Amino acid sequence: MDAFFVSVELRTRPELRGKPVIVGFPAERSVVLSASYEARATGVKSAMPMSIAMRRCPSAVIINPRHTEYYEVSGRLMEIFASITDLVEPLSVDEAFLDVGGAIRRLGSPMDIGHLIRRRVHSELGITASVGIASTKFVAKIASTRCKPDGILQIDAEDSVPYLHSLPVGALWGVGGKTAEVLSRLGIRTVADVAATPLASLKKVLGASGEHVHRLSMGIDPRPVTPTRLEKSIGAEETFSVDTADQALLHRELLRLSHRTAIRLRSSGMLARTVALKLRYSDFSTVTRSRTVQTPVDSAQLIYQVAVQLLESLGTRSMSVRLVGVRAEQLEPAGQTSLQLSLDRRDDNWRAAEQALDRVSERFGSKTLLPARLLEPGKPPADA
């Protein structure tokens, strides 16, 4: 998808189309989650500290993220993909590989299918997608990047190597900024330069990844589209704008993060057998604790209860907390797990209540349903 989080936000704020928009919290320690192409033109990038982004683009409109909305749209996006082919390999919430070989007789050529996907994404979700078509995953990924935003590009098999060799070395997977600098000092600046470099020389410079990079430079990528890729864990974390030792504030943030995690669990049809807590202190030391529960969970309240127990088990520390996170681990499909009735009926009541909120949000599109404890006086409800 093109600037996914921003695109989702612009569906309800069309007056911001064509303007620089950044999704993220306007706090010194927050980072850019998504930026419109107008903001990117000023040098703003994803994962950039918000303080730098706001200096580079002071006219940008800052929108607080609504993660629940993004995951709902992501789920509908994956349903569109699944209607095209069974061979879908998600890469993230807004991106996937599709093997459409088996759909050609039914839906037309790969280019026809690419146009169909883009039309459906736009008409059903109100956002735009860029589609790359190739005979390998690696080249398809490059094609999708090169035709952004809102484009489509097909690179035929016989054209793959010439096309790759016209690109800078940074286009190769595994070649980040530092690696590109190392290669540049050796006179290797393009993919063609990589292909012309003896494998032994690349291994000497890049180690074990040298062979992988060399193969990609020749267009060799035998990896199939792998449709069954279950997430190993689901979670959320938050960096405070100011370090805190306030236990009430920590509990409040744990509740917020538990709801974000639980919503993702339920939308993915997953249950968690283990709940983990992550704390990063003011000296940047990080502590993690986890606990396996007797019955798999997808309820925010149950995740929160375990997270609070883990927090209390750490005792009181002299250092303030910089970051807090909650993660659900040891995931398993809900349909394959028989949920036992809890010994405490209240646990089942919490699950039922949260599932009811899911249904309300799905039907009416409301994203402001959240525990009263998370409401701040004088402020509009934030996404949970």
TrEMBL record:
> Which cell locations does it reside in?
Cytoplasm
Record-marked site positions (Substrate discrimination)? F5
GO MF, one term, reads:
magnesium ion binding
The free-text note explaining how the cofactor binds reads: Binds 2 magnesium ions per subunit.
Q: What keywords were assigned to this record?
A: Cytoplasm, DNA damage, DNA repair, DNA replication, DNA-binding, DNA-directed DNA polymerase, Magnesium, Metal-binding, Mutator protein, Nucleotidyltransferase, Transferase
The prosthetic group or cofactor this protein requires is:
Mg(2+)
* Name of the top EC class for this enzyme: transferase
Entry EC no(s): 2.7.7.7
Active site annotation, chain numbering: E95
Keyword Transcription regulation in annotation: no
Reaction catalysis annotation: DNA(n) + a 2'-deoxyribonucleoside 5'-triphosphate = DNA(n+1) + diphosphate
CDD domains assigned to the protein according to its UniProt record, in alphabetical order: PolY_Pol_IV_kappa
Predominant location category: cytoplasm
Its biological purpose = Poorly processive, error-prone DNA polymerase involved in untargeted mutagenesis. Copies undamaged DNA at stalled replication forks, which arise in vivo from mismatched or misaligned primer ends. These misaligned primers can be extended by PolIV. Exhibits no 3'-5' exonuclease (proofreading) activity. May be involved in translesional synthesis, in conjunction with the beta clamp from PolIII.
Protein name per the record: DNA polymerase IV
